[in-house]
Structures are given as structure tokens and as C-alpha cells.
């Protein structure tokens, strides 16, 4: 089936396997099955819409709407809805059913859900089981972590996004099972490394990319199980030691020198079409131990899935973004959820089944268009029903949504509680203020940054790019000294943006292998200058 995306107007194909999936997940209410229709948005635009609901990094100081104490929250102080601190939100001090409303068939679901959302209290940050890690968000099992987002099972980590099972790491992006690493992107199982990208099982290396099983290498690209290499050239241990001494203590000038050397080195070297490991019949990038998982990015232990991003442990699901540590099963259009089954079009919903069009609901089942529900079932717009009445009313609501064009589509962009530039959508699909407003999103204007004084004696530094003041924590001062690193001259937000600019798009293009001309799907767009090899040609080159 060929369609034209209603957002970007580009044509896209919906293959038969997708249509079969929509048929498989179509729910039955009151004895009638409601077919999930093919989407009206292409995969990237669907991804963009889901991401526009998730604010990770834009944190605000504001009073709690319950206790009036000062808290840190993803919701700005000027938002019209109540916001509670994390412990307050999970407590028994409020009842989500008190905000219930009847469904009005003269309005769209989006209009009614927005009305409900402005009444119900919302959680300030999304953290579970954290110790000395208050300034984190979408984080699980954290100890001594600071400004880590979308993370799980970490200790002593600072300034990162999508960080899993890491220890003593700083300034990292999409990094798993690493220790003592700095400026890591898309890497796994590395130890004591500085400036690494798309590397696996490397130790004691500096400024490396696309390396596997390497030790004591500097400014290298595309090596496999090598040691004592500099600029991809093999040296004796004694020769390498003399080279390494020059880079044992890095300065900003030496970092620029190494980056320039690596950039020049890899210009004429082949790049692998995708980073897919121990997987069968998969496409995308940073895919590991998956089977029949297509068009997916940062996916691990998934099977029979499609259009995933940053979603591990998922089965038989499509269009899922940031669903961890256990992803959904037989679900569609999911964002920031955990361990759901038979669900559709949810954001921030944990542990349950048969939940649709809901936000911020946990340990529940059989919900439709609810927000803030905890341990509830058979509710619509936060109103309690019997099982029989719930089924009858949901069937009527879906029929109404079919007429309004809402059924099967994700939440309307107007339902997002955040401005577009507050969300991670701006990181992966950057827009100008004018572009975002034209497309129907909102925008939060930031005050201009005035030049600030620098006072290293008091621990206050000024970003050389943004003029924003920032401070070093005692924890990171110790880390930089241990790792032979200079004090950063950029604010941590600027460092994060620089890492994001190195991350390939969450999209695939069809192009040819630069060597054998075989057709490949890769997230290197055809207009990029890199030499891209298919798996067969690349392995023949590096081994």
C-alpha cells in the first residue's frame, strides 16, 4: 500500500506485513472487532510525534502544587496543571478518580483528554529506586548519578542519555556496560576509554571509532582485535608507550589534534552499513541479539518487531520508543512505557494490559483515555465503570474516533504537555520556532544569555559557546583528574548537543554498497560522503 504522509507530504509504503500486524492487534469490544487502520504518517514522522511527548532534559525549579515545597520538575512553573514531587505523586494523599469526567460525543477525544490532563496532578520527575540521584529523569536503579536521562542500573555516572549498566562514566550517549569511559557514543563493554564511538569490548583506548576488541589504541578507526596502534598503524609496545605518553594528560589542544587526525584517517576508509550484532533478519542500527526486527535503532533482545527506538526486550510490537527495561508485547505506538501487553497509543504507562490512549498510568489494566491512574481497571477519562459498561462505552468511543479520524493514530500533538523544543523531538528532528509553530506544535522562548563572569576560584565557569555559567561537581573534578582530562570549557548541554550531532539519524535509506553495488538499507543518507560497505564487503576488508 502506498500513502502520502500527512505531515511531511513524502510518499511511503505500508507493506503487507505491517497490515497483517494492524489486523493482529485490532481489539474487540462488546463483541465487535475494531480494525486498526494503516497510519497516516510515515515512520520518521510517527517517531517525531511520539518524541514530542517526552521531556528528558529541560528541568525547572518550581513549587509543588501539593506541599508548596521547591522541587525540580519537567513541567515549567507556568504550566496550568498541578505538579507533585515524586513521593507525593505516588502517595495516597490524592485520588485520581475525583477528576473523572463523562465522555462527550460532541467533542474529539483530544479535546476531552486535554481538559482532563489540566486537572489531574502530574509527577515532577520519572525516577525509580534511586540513591543520591535526584537530578536524573526517566531513570531506574541509579546510585550517585547526576543529570543522567533515560538510564538504568548505573553508578557514579554524570551527564548522559540512554545509559545502561555503566559505572564511573561521564558525558556519554547510548552507552551500555561500560566503566571509566568519557565521551562515549553508541559503545558497549568498554573500559578506561576516552572519546569512543560505536566501539565494543575495547580497553585503554583514546579517540577510537568502529573498533572491536582493541587495547591500547589511539586515533584509530575500524580495527578488530588490535593492540598498540596509532592512526591504524601497528607499533611495538615500546614505541607505542612513547606515543601514548604524549596523550596521557589531554589538553583541549591535544583533543582537537586527535579529532582532526581521526577525521582525516577515516575519510578514505570504508564504513560499515550498520552496527548489527548477533541478530537475524534485522535492519536499523545498534541492534543486538534480535530476530526479525526491522527499521529499529538501539534495540536489544527483540523479536518480530518494527520501528523501534531505544527499546529492549520487546515482542511482536511496532512503533515503540523508549520502552524499558522490559518493552511491550503485541502493542503499537508506545512511548516511555514498561512491560505492557495488548496496548496502543500510550505515553508513560507502566505494567499493565489493554490500555489505550492513556498517559502516566501504572499497574493498571483496561483503561481508555486516562491519566494519573494507579492500580485501577475499567476506567474511561478517569471514571470508573463496570466491565460490561466499559466495553459498551469503549466500542461507542472508537466508532466516534473513526469519524473524527483519531482511531489508530497517536495522541494529537496538541495533547503534548511540553513545547516542542522542550522535548527530545528537537534533538532528533530539529525545527526552528517558525517551523514548529507552522506544524502545530508549541514553542517555549528562552531568554537570551548575557555574558557572565568566570570565577574558577568559586567553581563557576562560563561556556565559551553559550555564555551560560556552570559548575563542576566534586565528583566530576575527581573523574577528570583520574582520566587525564582537562576541565570542560563547554556547558554540559552544549557537550550533549555535540554528541547528538555525531549520532546518525533514526531513519533508513536504500543505497548501494560502495564496493559490490549490492542494495543495502543504512542510516547513512545517499548524499553523505562516507564510503559505505555492506556486511560481506566490510568483513572482508577488516579481517
Describe this structure as you would to a colleague:
The chain is of the alpha/beta class and 543 residues long. The chain is globular and about 80 Å long.
Terminal residue distance: 42 Å
| Overall SS class | alpha/beta
Specify the number of helices.
12
Strand percentage: 25-35%
Walk me through the topology.
Blueprint: E1 2-4, E2 11-13, H1 16-24, E3 28-29, E4 32-33, H2 43-51, E5 60-63, E6 70-73, E7 83-84, H3 86-90, H4 109-117, E8 122-123, E9 127-131, E10 137-143, E11 146-155, E12 158-164, E13 170-176, E14 179-185, E15 191-197, E16 206-209, E17 215-221, E18 227-230, E19 233-234, H5 237-246, H6 252-266, E20 270-272, E21 276-277, E22 284-288, E23 291-294, E24 296-300, E25 303-309, E26 318-321, E27 332-335, E28 338-341, E29 344-356, E30 359-368, E31 377-380, E32 383-384, H7 387-404, H8 425-428, H9 433-438, E33 460-462, E34 469-471, H10 474-483, H11 492-502, E35 509-512, E36 519-522, E37 531-533, H12 535-542
Structure, briefly:
With 543 residues, the chain is an alpha/beta fold. The mean pLDDT is 96.
Keywords for this structure?
4 domains, 543 residues, 21% helix, alpha/beta, nine-stranded mixed sheet, 37 strands
Amino acid at each position: 500500500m502506498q500513502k502520502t504522509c500527512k505531515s511531511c507530504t513524502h510518499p511511503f509504503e505500508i507493506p503487507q506485513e505491517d497490515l497483517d500486524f494492524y489486523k493482529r492487534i485490532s481489539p474487540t469490544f462488546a463483541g465487535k472487532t475494531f480494525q486498526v487502520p494503516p497510519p497516516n504518517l510515515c515512520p520518521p514522522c510517527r517517531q517525531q510525534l511520539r518524541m514530542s511527548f517526552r521531556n528528558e532534559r529541560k528541568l525547572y525549579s518550581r513549587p509543588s502544587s501539593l506541599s508548596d515545597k521547591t522541587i525540580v520538575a519537567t513541567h515549567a512553573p507556568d504550566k496550568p496543571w498541578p505538579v507533585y514531587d515524586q513521593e507525593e505523586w505516588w502517595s495516597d494523599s490524592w485520588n485520581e478518580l475525583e477528576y473523572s469526567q463523562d465522555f462527550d460525543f460532541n467533542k474529539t477525544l483530544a479535546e476531552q483528554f486535554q481538559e482532563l490532563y489540566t486537572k489531574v496532578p502530574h509527577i515532577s520527575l520519572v525516577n525509580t529506586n534511586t540513591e543520591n540521584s535526584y537530578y536524573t529523569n526517566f531513570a531506574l536503579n541509579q546510585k550517585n548519578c547526576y543529570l543522567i536521562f533515560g538510564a538504568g542500573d548505573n553508578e557514579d555516572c554524570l551527564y548522559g542519555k540512554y545509559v545502561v549498566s555503566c559505572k564511573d562514566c561521564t558525558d556519554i550517549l547510548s552507552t551500555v556496560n561500560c566503566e571509566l569511559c568519557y565521551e562515549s557514543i553508541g559503545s558497549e563493554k568498554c573500559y578506561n576509554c576516552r572519546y569512543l564511538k560505536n566501539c565494543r569490548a575495547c580497553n585503554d583506548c583514546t579517540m577510537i571509532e568502529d573498533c572491536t576488541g582493541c587495547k591500547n589504541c589511539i586515533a584509530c578507526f575500524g580495527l578488530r582485535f588490535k593492540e598498540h596502534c596509532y592512526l591504524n598503524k601497528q607499533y611495538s609496545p615500546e614505541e607505542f608507550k612513547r606515543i601514548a605518553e604524549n596523550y596521557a594528560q589531554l589538553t583541549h589542544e591535544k583533543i582537537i589534534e586527535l579529532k582532526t587526525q581521526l577525521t582525516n584517517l577515516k575519510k578514505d576508509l570504508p564504513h560499515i552499513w550498520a552496527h548489527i550484532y548477533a541478530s537475524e533478519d534485522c535492519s536499523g542500527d545498534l541492534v543486538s541479539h534480535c530476530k526479525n526486527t526491522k527499521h529499529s535503532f538501539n534495540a536489544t533482545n527483540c523479536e518480530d518487531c518494527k520501528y523501534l527506538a531505544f527499546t529492549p526486550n520487546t515482542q511482536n510490537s511496532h512503533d515503540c520508543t523508549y520502552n524499558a527495561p522490559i518493552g511491550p508485547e503485541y502493542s503499537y505506538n508506545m512511548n516511555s512505557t514498561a512491560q505492557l501487553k495488548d496496548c496502543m497509543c500510550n505515553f508513560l504507562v507502566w505494567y499493565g494490559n489493554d490500555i489505550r490512549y492513556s498517559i502516566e498510568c501504572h499497574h493498571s489494566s483496561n483503561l481508555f483515555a486516562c491519566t494519573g491512574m494507579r492500580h485501577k481497571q475499567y476506567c474511561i477519562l478517569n471514571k470508573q465503570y463496570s466491565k460490561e459498561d466499559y466495553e459498551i462505552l469503549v466500542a461507542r468511543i472508537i466508532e466516534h474516533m473513526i469519524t473524527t479520524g483519531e482511531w489508530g493514530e497517536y495522541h494529537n500533538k496538541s495533547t503534548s504537555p511540553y513545547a516542542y523544543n522542550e522535548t527530545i523531538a528537537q534533538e532528533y528532528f530539529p525545527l526552528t520556532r517558525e517551523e514548529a509553530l507552522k506544524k502545530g506544535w508549541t514553542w517555549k522562548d528562552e531568554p537570551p544569555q548575557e555574558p557572565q563572569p568566570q570565577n574558577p576560584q568559586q567553581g563557576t565557569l562560563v561556556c565559551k559557546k553559550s555564555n551560560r555559567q556552570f559548575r563542576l561537581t566534586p565528583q566530576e573534578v575527581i573523574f577528570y583528574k583520574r582520566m587525564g582530562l582537562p576541565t570542560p570549557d563547554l556547558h554540559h548541554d552544549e557537550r550533549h548537543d555535540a554528541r547528538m550531532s555525531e549520532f546518525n539519524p533514526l531513519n533508513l535509506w536504500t543505497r548501494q554498497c560502495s564496493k559490490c553495488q549490492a542494495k543495502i538499507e543504512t542510516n547513512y543518507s545517499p548524499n553523505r560522503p562516507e564510503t559505505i560497505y555492506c556486511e560481506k564487503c566490510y568483513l572482508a576488508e577488516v579481517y
